Amino acid sequence: MQGMPLVARVHGRHIERLNRTDSNVWPKGRMASGTLMWHAASRQWIIGNPKEDQRAQEVGGCSDGPYVVDLVNRIYWTC
Predict the structure, then answer these.
(1) Single pTM value for the model
(2) What pLDDT score does 15 carry?
(3) Which of 7, 39, 45, 68 could form a Cys-Cys staple with 18, CB 3.0–4.6 A?
(4) Is 23 within the bounds of a domain?
(5) DSSP classification of residue 9
(6) What pLDDT band is residue 46 in, cutting at 50, 70 and 90?
(7) Longest distance between any two alpha carbons in the chain, whole Å
(8) Is 72 helix (H, G, I), strand (E, B) or coil?
C-alpha cells in the first residue's frame, strides 16, 4: 500500500496522528490518539492508552497491541 502524509501533534506525552486528506484507504480525521510511550521489549515508541500498553507482548498495526510510531524517520506504522 502506498503511504500518505500525516500530521502529528505532540503535547507533552500526548500524541495525535491526523489524516488531512480523504482517501480510499483512510478517512480524513484522527487516526490515533494516546500517550507516547517507550515499549522496552520491542525498543520502539508506541501510541498507548492504558498503562498496560507499555508491557504489551505485541506491538504494531498487524497485532492486537498498540500502534508503533517511528519518531526519527517520521513513520506511523500500520498493517
Answers:
(1) 0.80
(2) 93
(3) 7
(4) yes
(5) E
(6) very high
(7) 35
(8) coil
Q: How many domains, the chain? A: 1
Q: What's the rounded Cα separation, in Å, for the pair 4 and 52?
A: 30
Cα 42 off chain centre by = 14
60 part of a folded domain: yes
**Count of helix runs (H) and strand runs (E) in the chain:** 0, 6
Three-class DSSP labels, 27-57: CCEEEEEEEEEEECCCCEEEEECCHHHHHCC
In angstroms, the CA 37 to CA 33 distance is 12
Order across the sheet with 44-48: list the strands. Answer: 7-11, 14-19, 29-39, 44-48, 67-70, 75-77
